[in-house]
Amino acid sequence: MAQLAGLVPGTDGFDALSELVDRYEEWIANKRGESDRLPNDYQQTAETHLTRCDECAQRMRKGLSYLTKNSNARRAFELANHAILLQQICGQQEL
């Protein structure tokens, strides 16, 4: 979370996010291969869901690309992640 908040010098955490999307796309491909073994009654539903997964992966890639190109969006992303990090830290403390 600190990387995504821009608090770790030399890294922005975007490589890790890109790898997350890579692995999600691999998971989708694996599930698509498994769906071929489903009974015919389920294959259309599986394809519908996997198509939605593909769309999500594309949105993730597009979002990452936008964050790398738009400094205002990137700063807003960093501030949001900083707030989440602070909440995680505060949430661990006894009141």
Describe the structure.
The protein has 3 helices and no strands. With 95 residues, the chain is an all-alpha fold. It has one domain. Helix 1 (14-35) packs antiparallel against helix 2 (40-69) and helix 2 packs across helix 3. The longest helix has 30 residues, at 40-69. It is elongated and about 50 Å long. The two termini are 23 Å apart.
- How many β-strand runs? 0
- Total number of helices: 3
- How big is the Rg? 18 Å
Main sheet properties: none
Q: Residue share in helices?
A: over 70%
Helix/strand/pairing category: mainly alpha
Quick check: average pLDDT? 94
Order of helices and strands: HHH
Q: Runs with pLDDT <50, length 5+?
A: none
Tell me the overall shape.
elongated
Q: How would you name the oligomeric state of the polypeptide chains in this document?
A: single chain
Task: Provide keyphrases for this structure.
mainly alpha, about 100 residues
What secondary-structure arrangement, pairings included, does this model have?
Elements (H helix, E strand, L loop, with lengths): L13 H22 L4 H30 L1 H21 L4
Helix pairs in contact: 1-2, 2-3
Condensed summary:
This protein has 95 residues and is mainly alpha-helical. It has helices at residues 14-35, 40-69, 71-91. Helices cover 77% and strands 0% of the residues.
